[in-house]
Amino acid sequence: MGDKVRITCVSCPMGCDLEVEVLDKEIKKIEGNRCPRGIEYAKAEYFNPTRILPTTAKVKGGVLPLVPVKTAKPIPKGLLEKAMVEIAQVELEAPIKLGDIVIKNILDTGIDVVATRDLAKK
């Protein structure tokens, strides 16, 4: 008998509650999915969960003191806290354009952090 892990699939609006049975670090069975995307989501979530990281970065000389930013693609869930620390150290100079790269290749993931709105200069 292996371990059973419960995962909520967020691949589509159905939000299926998946049960993943694992034996010796190998997935033996996935149940509860109502579409094929649930199988792939469960595998990815079990072996290497990733998330897009939305947050804010400090801005100098802008009409607002912060600008919303996010990782351009999902990064490994285990790196979220380290990424937050790195983003907190950044201070951008206004003006900022939607899509500007705030941090290139954060934590050597190959993924950039980008601005998610324009921010004008004071």
TrEMBL record:
Domain of life: Bacteria
SUPFAM superfamilies, alphabetized: CPE0013-like (SSF160148), Formate dehydrogenase/DMSO reductase, domains 1-3 (SSF53706)
One Pfam short name: DUF1667
InterPro entries assigned: CPE0013-like_sf, DUF1667
Transmembrane segments: none
PANTHER family documented for this protein: DUF1667 DOMAIN-CONTAINING PROTEIN, MOLYBDOPTERIN OXIDOREDUCTASE, 4FE-4S CLUSTER-BINDING SUBUNIT
Protein's recorded name: Molybdopterin oxidoreductase
